[in-house]
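Case study 2.
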Amino acid sequence: MAAERRRGERVVFERGVPAHMMGIDGTWRRDCTLEDVSETGAKLTIEGSVEGLHLKEFFLLLSSTGLAYRRCELAWVNGDQIGVNFLKTGDKKKRAPARREQVV
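Prediction:
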């Protein structure tokens, strides 16, 4: 049995929660099932092939309107299941400092 490496406690869903994965640039979307979730990541079961998808960074859409989402990065793959780490704002790219207009 693989050792549990997750730091936070997780919530396991008995039947899974329907969700969607979407590319950062919006060029692809896949249905998935949220199997478990913690503060830092989740386990998903993917419907269809993930071959050719850019999974380094993507969105996990948790609502049908897309208003509830998490930015993710791929942690592991095991058949049709993947593990993802949730990214916090500023984890991957540093934002440019806000420009101030000069007062003349």
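The mean pLDDT is 83.
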